[in-house]
């Protein structure tokens, strides 16, 4: 499972969510979940589940190989990808 926490620029949370939803639709495989935590109106969390570690590596490689950044980048102040834990979900 990979989590990415976006902090939207002031007043741009709605636009950030719309851009993330648009990006979500073009994502192959299992679609990521998009959450807006109650505690902070500017934060948006995206969680994506992968079948194995190779799928995670492939997704990260696709992101890094893009020539143009996602549309959501213009609405984002900071992006954090916590890597403090790895969860294994038995399926």
Question: Can you lay out the helices and strands and say which pair or pack?
Answer:
Layout: E1 2-8, H1 13-25, E2 33-35, E3 43-48, H2 53-65, E4 76-80
Antiparallel strand pairs: 1-3, 1-4, 2-3
Write structural notes for this entry:
It is a single chain. This protein is of the alpha+beta class and 91 residues long. The chain has one domain (2-80): 2-Layer Sandwich (Alpha-Beta Plaits), CATH 3.30.70. 29% of the residues lie in helices and 23% in strands. A 4-stranded antiparallel beta sheet has the order 2-3-1-4, with helices on one face. Strand 2 and strand 3 (43-48) form a beta hairpin.
The gist of it:
This protein is of the alpha+beta class and 91 residues long. It has helices at residues 13-25, 53-65, and strands spanning 2-8, 33-35, 43-48, 76-80. The protein has one domain (2-80): Alpha-Beta Plaits (2-Layer Sandwich), CATH 3.30.70.100.
Features:
29% helix; 2 helices; alpha+beta; 4-stranded antiparallel beta sheet; Alpha-Beta Plaits; 91 residues
The end-to-end span amounts to: 13 Å
The name of the CATH topology is: Alpha-Beta Plaits
Oligomer type? single chain
How many helices? The count is 2
């Amino acid at each position: 499972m990979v989590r990415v926490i976006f902090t939207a620029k002031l007043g741009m949370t709605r636009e950030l969510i719309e851009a993330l939803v648009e990006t979500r639709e073009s994502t192959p495989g299992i679609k990521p979940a998009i959450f807006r935590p109650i505690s902070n109106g500017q934060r948006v969390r995206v969680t994506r589940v992968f079948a194995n570690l190779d799928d995670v590596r492939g997704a990260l490689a696709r992101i890094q190989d893009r020539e143009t950044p996602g549309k959501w980048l213009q609405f984002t102040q900071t992006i954090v990808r916590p890597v403090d834990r790895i969860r294994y979900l038995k399926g």
